Each structure stands twice: as C-alpha cells, then as structure tokens.
Amino acid sequence: MTTLPHSIMDGDGRLPQARARRRRGQMTGGGGSGSTPQPTAMSAPLAPVARVEPKLTKPAKPTKAQRTRADAALLTELLSDEIDFMDHPDFHKAGAEQRIYTKAPIVPRPTVTWYRPMMDDIGTTSPRRHDGVVLTAAQERVIFMQFNYARYRMSRIQKALRGRAPGAEQARELLRWNSTATAYREQIAETNLALVLAMAKRVRLGEGEYADLIGEGNMALMRSVDKFDCGRGFKFSTYACRSILKAFSRHGIKVSKHKQRFPVEFDPALEQGDGVASIRAASERQDAAEVRDIVESNRADLTEIEREVVMHRFAFQGLDQGRTPTLAQVGNLIGLTKERVRQIQNQALAKIRMTLEGACAGDRSGNGHRSPVVAIN
Questions:
Q1: 41, 7 Cβ separation under 8 angstroms
Q2: Distance (Å, rounded) from C-alpha 62 to C-alpha 75?
Q3: CA-to-CA distance for 250 and 220, rounded, in angstroms?
C-alpha cells in the first residue's frame, strides 16, 4: 500500500471526499471547462486511503521440511548415541541456566596463532614462548560448568524424546545447546593446546613420527575435556597430562609392533635427513679448533700445571695414541693424585669455557671484542 505525504492528509489520516472527487475529475478531463488541469502533488490516480492497523503475529515455526539437510543429519547423529556429561548438583537447582551463564565471570578466549610456530620449533633447544591464556582454577570451573550444563540440557531433551522424532521446538533447542557445548569444548581445547606440545617433548621419536604423536595427543586432550569432572577440585592440566602421556605410550607400543611386523617399510636412515647432522658436526669441529687455539696460545691464562693437565688429559700431545688417558694415568705422569688432577682439570675447563663464551659473544656483536677473562683460583 502506498503511503501518502502528510501535507495532503487530514488530521485523522483520511482524504476529504470532496478533494478526492475534484482531483479525479481533473485527471479524467471532467467539468467541461476544457482547460488544462493544473499539476497536483500526485501524478497518478488516487483512491481513498483508509488506515490499516498492522496485525502482530508470531513467526511461524519451521516445519520439518524447512530444516536444512545439515541440521537433519546432525539431529540424527545426536540422537543416535547417548549424550554423556559430567553431572553437578548445581544443574538441578532453580535458576541454574542464569547462574551458570549470565552471572558467571567471563573467561578469556585464547589465541592460537602461536601454535604453528611452536610446531616448527620442535627439536630446537629454545622454542618460542607462546602467548596463550592460562586459566585459574576458578576460571576452569566456570567454563567446564558451562560446557557440561549444555550437555546436560541436551541429555534431558534426548531422554524426554524416548526414541521419538523431535518436534520443531525440541529440535531447535537441541541444536542450540549442541552449538553452545561445541563452542565451549573448542575453547577449552584451544586453551590447553600447549599441554600436548609440552608432553610431546618428553618423548623421543623420529621426525617423521612427531606429527602422528601430536595427533594422538590432541585426541587424548579432547577425550579429557569430555571426561573431566571440575567438581573434584583438581586442575584440568593434572588430569589431561596423565591422559596424554598414556596416549603417547599406547602410540609407541603400536608403532613398535608395526615396525616388527613390517620391518622393510621403515628405514630410519632414509627417513632422517643429514642436514642437521652435518651442521652439528661442522660446529663441533669449529668449536674443537677454537678450544685447541685457546689452550695452545694460553688465551685463558692457564697456569703451568693447569695447562699440563689439560694437554695430557685431552690428548693434545698424544692424538696418535687413539684414546684419552684417565685421571689416574695423568696423575701418574705429573706426580699428583687422581682427585687433585680432577680439581685442576675443572678449574682449567672453567677458564677455557669463559674465554670461549667471550669469543662467541664478540663474534655475535660484530666488533671482535673479547670479554675479560676472570681467573678462578
């Protein structure tokens, strides 16, 4: 219906009948005057307009045919298995939903942008620190209560149906609570991703198996989220770390059995590259040459006895012998006890280490500056 300008309407919203008839006569050429009608505010024929009061009706509930296929498949999946949750006495009290969601403090969401760099840094001695969120015990209780209450409401709907197909309202509620539970489950998992990486660093496996290990740890983490009972008063990390380590142990046993059954499918020499080993060997040769130069030129200000012990102990003078003499053998050569040789050796190594670290620091600064050597008496 066309809405008319307020300037051509009466106070009660109606057009006067006389004005309407006169305007219709002008537009149809009536009146016999033959004169050209004057332009009016409306360029099209207008009929009397009556006020129409809008009728407020509730939106129609979506029928079974209007649900999307994805929702229908999800409903079938949710109703096929029993919905588990960790029960709590607060779930059965009046006003539980408002108390658990509305009145509860907000738990900060984590960022997972650090997760990929941490995966890339595996195997390094100093991986990057992540900027994840570490929740307190109170915050963990809040978010686990919210997660399990959503699962509790889903379980109530499932039990009320007793195997029957859900109605429109029940289907809508079941999908809503499932979306809530899924969101909180993902938030808990993202907050505790670092637990999997921390536990994975305790297990020594080949580079090719690390991705599988992380996958097993992530699955164990998700199972821990589903089974953790915040009402017992423990931190989630205490429960999850044990579960993750057990998953790693089971994975190791499975991989070991697989290698025993199919030994030809796995060759460690082919799986591992030689780039890291060659770099490490070159670095060790360079460090050994630097230490030899420090000892031979006495840049560490070693005493005569310290220098003699180091030269004999580490075979600087007897590389052709094929093996390093023991402390007792060095003591017999210079006339000292085994314990005294050990003390002199430790003092000399401390001086050499400080000189070597000063040389490395000077190389990194780019100015060739050597740190002053502090003698240890």
A1: yes
A2: 15
A3: 11
Cβ neighbours, 10 Å, residue 169? 11
Question: Which token pair is 51?
Answer: 């006020």
Q: Rounded to an integer, what distance in angstroms lies between the CA atom of residue 340 and that of residue 172? A: 82
Q: Is the pTM of this model over 0.85?
A: no
Hey, how many other C-beta atoms are within 10 angstroms of the C-beta on 303?
Answer: 15
Closest listed residue to residue 311, CA positions, set 294, 93, 245 = 294
Cα–Cα distance, 48 to 43 (Å, whole number): 15
Which domains does the chain show, CATH number per domain? 1-50 (no CATH), 70-264 (1.20.120), 288-365 (1.10.10.10)
In terms of Cβ atoms closer than 10 Å to its own Cβ (0-12, 13-18, 19+), residue 340 is: middle
**Torsion-angle region of 16 (φ positive above 0: left; ψ -120 to 50: alpha; else: beta):** beta
pLDDT, tens only, 185-239: 999 999 999 899 888 888 776 555 778 888 899 999 999 999 999 999 889 999 9
Is the distance from CB of 307 to CB of 348 less than 8 angstroms?
yes
| Site of tokens 């670095």 | 283
DSSP string, 344-359: HHHHHHHHHHHHHHHH
* Residues 6 or more apart whose Cβ sits within 8 Å of residue 255: 205, 209, 212
Q: What is the pLDDT of residues 260-280, one digit of tens each?
A: 777 666 566 666 666 677 888
Structure tokens at 40: 């009016």
d(CA 218, CA 189): 8
